[in-house]
Amino acid sequence: MKITALVLALVMVAACAAYGSISTNNHMPPRKNAGSTGTPTYEGRDGGEDISTAVVIPSLPFNDTGNTCPYLNDYDETCPYSGGTAPDVVYAYTPSGAEMITIDLCSSLYDTKVYVYEDIATPGAPYACNDDACGSDGFKSLISNLLITPGHTYYIVVDGYGTSCGEYVLDITGIPATPCVVSCPPWGVDEGEVDCFDQYDDTYNGGCNVTPEAFQPISLNTTICGNSGNFMYDDGTGAVEYRDMDWYELVLTEEEHVEFCICADFPVRIWILDGAGGCLSIVQVASEAMAAGYELCVDEVLPAGTYWMLVSIDGWLGIPCGVDYVARIYEFGYTPVEPTSWGTIKSIYR
Fold first, then answer.
1. Which of these, 156, 180, 218, 327, could form a disulfide with 91 (CB 3.0-4.6 Å)?
2. What pTM does this model have?
3. Residue 315: what pLDDT?
């Protein structure tokens, strides 16, 4: 589906609410301010100098503040800028179970960079890396929706662009990640949309992204079996990669505690959006993302009204069209029952 100015605005709102986790893949990194450097002192400090002395994170959520200037330059990664000699601080976290975590340096006071190693330092091949994603100048660092698994130690390196150092604010949050298998249950409802393809215009359930708007009606306590993917679209100015986003419309006649869960074979993001103001005044109620093959659930108490439950690939990641997901929108605590006949029920109790 083609993305309109309205949905670009929605993406920006969602990005702020979800700590910048939504972004396109077709923009250049922001221009750096050559003067945004600190003053390294390199006098050293106990803990965090390198992986062997990393500051241990006992549990999440975790918050810490500090100043990188007293440290040495032990590591550097290209994401996308190379040749950095800034001092860095190292933290270590060993999860007891699978988690999706967000590493946030958005409130720091210098031009940061952050990257993650799994178990050992792997120069040139970090587990994750980010330079610019957030902050008032766009030069602060953020890694969102990173899957980490038990049995590994993750080393989080707080670094800087170029020679930049200074005061940082580190926030790390996480949600449990439970493995799941995408399998449409007997009571599941087929989304009914064709697989996307290059030059696809999603008039089926493209929601606010298409003209005229197109929402797929659903009722509470419904399981939907659908699919998504990325495709190329050229409006005459050059081909750009887009993603198939499925908009489901839920109308509540009274207040309900609603649970929205999904299992997908691709990195997935779901939203609950308040549609009371229409596409021109969308209000985000909730948004979360999860890695492929792990269950994601959000639950909210929703007053009577119209809501849009949105399913999408988390980002623009080259996912082929036709990759499956199973989503359920239930009353909180509701247990689905497979449809059966009265004769079958009677035979069980003979």
1. 156
2. 0.76
3. 79
